[in-house]
Amino acid sequence: ARGNFWALQALSSGNSFALGFCIFRGLGIQSDHEKAFSFYETAANEANEFAQISLAECYDLGLGTEMSNED
After folding, report:
1. Among residues 35, 34, 55, which one has the least CA distance to residue 46?
2. What is the pTM of this model?
3. Exposed site from 25, 30, 32, 49, fewest CB < 10 Å?
4. pLDDT tens-place string over residues 7-59
5. How far apart are CA 20 and CA 27, in angstroms?
6. Using CA atoms, how far apart are residues 21 and 37, in angstroms rounded to an integer?
């Protein structure tokens, strides 16, 4: 129930990072790393530092995208 609250808050606020976080973690919504990656990417392009970090982690671990082979 609490996860649903956060997912609805993120959706209604239009906050791409928050929505990506909920989707990534499966908070009130089905977990989907590819969709979360897309929302993180949008937020990162809007200079959201948390999204930039999350996007880097996705690349590093290959979650929602292909794993980065760069150091």
Report:
1. 55
2. 0.83
3. 30
4. 778 778 878 999 999 999 998 889 999 999 999 999 999 999 999 999 999 99
5. 10
6. 9
Burial (CB count <10 Å: 0-12, 13-18, 19+), residue 71: exposed
Alpha carbon 39 to its chain's center? 5
> Cα–Cα distance between 6 and 44 in angstroms, integer?
20
Cβ count near 5 (within 10 Å)? 11
DSSP 8-state assignment for residue 69: -
Structure tokens at 29: 């919504």
Residues 6+ apart with CB under 8 A from 66: none
- Does residue 71 carry a pLDDT above 70? no
